[in-house]
Amino acid sequence: MAETIRSGFHAGGWKELAFEAFREGVTIHWIRRFEGEAPGVALLKYEAGASVPRHLHVGLETILVLEGSQSDETGRYPTGSFIVNAPGSEHSVWSEDGCVVLIQWDRPVQILN
């Protein structure tokens, strides 16, 4: 399986990439879609005020905030924050000012509401 390389994320290199609809107010650029047992890797771009409803993490989720800030019930995570959500954890996510995050999911999440 070929690996995918993207460079310059820390310097805004993601700004030239094509994003598609994901959820209301949130767009996605897939770096690697889920395939069999392989994890999914993507960039998510939240508009100011956008949110994702409460969901369950079936597998490990890791997030690096590249721009702006992302929040959940445990806090606000500004640019440069690295977040790890363990399998079995659940939360909702929002961004008051908008953000772009690099995210990897071991398994797709399950929306709870």
TrEMBL record:
Gene3D superfamilies: Jelly Rolls. Residues 15-103 form the ChrR-like cupin domain. It comes from the Bacteria. Signal peptide: none annotated. Pfam families: Cupin_7. SUPFAM superfamilies: RmlC-like cupins (SSF51182). This is Anti-sigma factor ChrR (Cupin superfamily). It comes from Rhizobium rhizoryzae.
